[in-house]
Amino acid sequence: PSAHLTVDPNSAVGAIQRRLFGGFVEHLGRHVYDGIYEPGHPSADADGFRTDVIELVKELGVSTIRYPGGNFVSGFRWEDSVGPVAERPRRLDLAWHSTETNEVGLHEFSSWLEKVGSDLMMAVNLGTRGTLEALDLLEYSNVPAGSALAQRRIDNGRTEPFGVQVWCLGNEMDGPWQLGHRNADDYGKLAARTAKGMRQLDPSIELVVCGSSGASMPTFGEWERVVLTHAYDDVDMISCHAYYQEHDGDLDSFLASAVDMDGFIEKVVATADHVKAVRGSDKQINISFDEWNVWYLDRYENVDKVEGIGNWPIAPRLLEDVYSVVDAVVFGNLMISLLKHSDRVASASLAQLVNVIAPIMTEPGGPAWRQTTFFPFAITSRLAQGEALQLKLDVPTHDTKRYGAVPLVDAVATHDAEDGSSAVFLVNRSSTESIDVTVDVSALGDVQVRESHTLNDDDVYAKNTLDAPTRVAPRPNETARVSDGTLTVTLPPVSWTALALS
Ligand code: AHR
């Protein structure tokens, strides 16, 4: 089969926010302990952080990092995580049935962020706590000096405020599994009054209200409408969370997962704009897609789950999915979906970063390595600069069980007016056929292919593991060339491709 795409200079979607390439670190499993922090590891620095992991996080190119949860945050008392480490309490984390030692807290995590060059995006606990505790944490974090909590931060060794810019008002409050779960009406009121208070304290912050934990939640759509009806004037973004996996060997539907993400984003935008219309507001609410990934959730439910009143392990192996080539292709397509919606998706966080459904894996005392999903993230984060351009697609379709007829090729282009560079990101969703693609790139000027990367493999389930950490990696795509304003490239079956043009 063949496909023809056109870059239309009038098809700019919007400026690509660096925050689109955010990550997420939750106190969950071996993410923090034995992941980013392992004082006894040969590569650990003086603060106990693994420098091999720091180097990989830098290579990944992660902008903001959401912290400290996730479900964890709904039982979290932030005060436990500051002050002298020896005096910090051990707490039971009900979300993941683990013991939280609080060895790594706000100060330690912030110093790790400085090492990796990323910004903090903080979530407050609106599950088991409320407005007052959120205000306390904001005061501790952002007030320079002169108040009790600012002074406590200074006494704890941090003179300058943390200056946290983006705050999440709880986590997945629509989910019955969430500690302190509420209905949309109750949560919307709580979020609105917490947001008002937080802005009274620091008007410069940006606030994310909880949207749905997934488009298949029974309350999806109505949750967004009700929550935004309460909190529209007080927040800047509404969150989306989505995880995808292959179900029952249905590879074609799995490869089309981005179709679902496209629809999810467009429905949340429609709902936010409906509330805007009803309120007669001029303000636009954007999306923080602050959890997205491939996640084989069934494995957690059926294999890993920790239980027992006397069994609260520290840093157990949880959610340690090992990703295949096909997972990485779907993942690359999810990034294309985010870019295609960069007019309204102002922020996104890959969930998560190390060991826990993560692009980076580690062994205690041993190596750190890149999962297959590392590559599409790192390459897209580096090459997608400037504006996203919607491509006109003339592409064959095929039928899938979950999503009906879907295009076999999905793609987006980016263009940086400052340095004239461009990039095209493409996926081939066919599990059997190579596709010859032509792209009319004449609108991008006189360009040539500067870099090409294709991720595919004869074994679409090939993975990188402790024993074979470099089994899968992208390779240059020798078929990619530009001639007379037309880019030609052959996309192998089940593949993700990035082409840099200049
Ligand atoms: O990322 C893993 C979990 O997924 C998060 O803790 C939660 O917010 C979501 O359900």
UniProtKB/TrEMBL annotation:
SMART domains in the cross-refs: Alpha-L-AF_C
Assembly behavior: Homohexamer; trimer of dimers.
Q: What is this protein called?
A: non-reducing end alpha-L-arabinofuranosidase
Q: GO molecular function of the protein, one example?
A: alpha-L-arabinofuranosidase activity
Q: Please list the reactions this protein catalyses.
A: Hydrolysis of terminal non-reducing alpha-L-arabinofuranoside residues in alpha-L-arabinosides
- UniProt keyword list: Carbohydrate metabolism, Glycosidase, Hydrolase
Keyword Hydrolase tagged: yes
Show the InterPro entries listed in the entry: Alpha-L-AF_C (IPR010720), ASD1_cat (IPR055235), GH (IPR017853), Glyco_hydro_b (IPR013780)
Mind listing the GO biological process terms from this record?
A: L-arabinose metabolic process; polysaccharide catabolic process
Q: Which residues form the Alpha-L-arabinofuranosidase C-terminal domain?
A: 290-495
Q: What is its EC number?
A: 3.2.1.55
Q: Where does the record locate the signal sequence feature? A: none
* Protein's UniProt keywords contain NAD: no
List, alphabetically, the Pfam families matched: Alpha-L-AF_C (PF06964), ASD1_dom (PF22848)
Which organism is this entry from? Microbacterium endophyticum
Q: What is the lineage of its organism?
A: Bacteria, Bacillati, Actinomycetota, Actinomycetes, Micrococcales
